[in-house]
Fold these 2 entries.
Entry 1:
Amino acid sequence: VSEITGVSIRILRYYDEIGLLKPAKVTDAGYRLYDNRTLEKLQQIMFFRELEIPLADIKEIMEHPSAYGFRITPDQLYRQADCKEVTVNGPVEDWATWAKNQGTTYMALREMNPWIRAKSLPNKTGKSYTVLVPKAGAQLRSKQKVTVHDPRWVK
């Protein structure tokens, strides 16, 4: 997670320590494992950090979103474009070129995969990454079923 998000292991451990971002699971060896839900929460935290909001305030906002005006109606929810999943097992030297070869743009690729934070993916270990690529002709806002990631944010 640290490698793909740019958030250091030390910071991830600190977020766990203060209760801001708990991993989905901790292995017997002490490794913190994160699922899609916790990665989405990390994305929210990173957004608030970009706005220079203190961690204590971020935690408060995320625990009580309606108290801070973060309540939306279901029709306002983001609808992701229809995508195909592409598995990447090796390094990606340039995401923009990779996106073009997949028939999309770097901007659309980044929108579908917020975990892509750098221009390349070294992937020295050969780990498998699943990349969402918009299908040809897909609108960036599709009629696909809406997913509610945090029900406290929806009226």
Entry 2:
Amino acid sequence: MMRTAIFLLLFIFSHLNGDEILGSKKTDILIVSTEMGKNRQERKAKLLDEQLSRYNLTSEIVFNLKKENAEETFQGRKLIILDALDGKGGVIKLLREFENILEDTKTPYIALKLNYKKYSNMEDDFAKSLFDYFSEGGKYNFAQGAALLAKKYFNADVEVKPVHVMSDTGIYHPQKGKTTFETLHEYLSALSDEEKSRPMIGIVLHKENITSDDTVIVDTAIQKLEETGITPIAFYTKVGEDDFAGKRFFQIDGKNIIDLIVSFQVMIMDQDNLQKDYEDIGLKVMHGMIYRQGTQEDWENDKQGVPMNWIPMSYTIPEHIGYTDQIIIGALDDESKKTTPIKYQLDTFMNLAINYSKLKHKQNQDKNIAIFYYNYPPGANNFGSSYMRFPESVSNILNNMQKAGYVARANLLVDPKWCASSS
């Protein structure tokens, strides 16, 4: 009986091809991407797949595709999309690898992120429209691109609407206007007089958060601020641009209209120039980070919390620029590939921002200040900080604080017996 069962299974398997055995039948659309920003690219691919599924079209994304496997991988697809989070350079690299193979196999493809429209093996008008939808990205444009594909290949009776063009930089709010605004003036015009009179906090995100429909953390932060009577200015800038800090989105006549900045950006480039920009701006910049190695549960069980290879990007470079309060505030969702809040972490982070904003609007005489110092050499008989003249420094600090309006005891008695010898 056992031998009969095994024979039948072998017989069945021998009459199925490998794709069917593995459940890996080729999808209609394939996104080929570089490895950089893998989480963000996976989320974008998931969003596209959600829109395609309405028309029984399927898609998937592949990273680090080997050249020797490309021909077999491309054949039979309705569309190949070459895309890279590292932009033009990444896409050019993909074209060098695969363009000849795509042409030899006559596979329709588009290449995004270039300074021109690159496509082949399709009718011109159809290709240009597909390029526009998938190049602009976002839920709406992906939905229209999916409808266009369904109309082309299945004669689906669907309306395909015009592409929605989103500026590379701007201000975002999920519940105002068309959700994005190109200038500060345009955004402020959408606010009520009461909203414009409230304290304001800047929130920094990436355009890709919006185009991949991955704004839950930003939306939650916006809601948290508004519930406490603070008006958010959530803006996105372009990596590598001269005003990456985004001064044009929170300054009027060179003056800041926000109390501080909360940054959810990941890509931080040209840190030396950015450091100078933030010095000129003169605002506190808090840094909310995402655990990109797994879910909230994975993070809670991770003894390290932040992988060693993320230390330079997450701590070293931001601290060099002047960022503070680097806190993990979100993780990944396995199913949707979205970044999702770790509620208690994000609450703590946003409460720090809210309290700092309140502090900026308090008179100095109403503020309570604590001074911490490092007592070395240790012991009850010492009052020093690595042999520096700490008591005298505290006295100077308190004197200057009193001049600035703080209620401080400026006549601190400096007794030599509390001072460590500096000789």
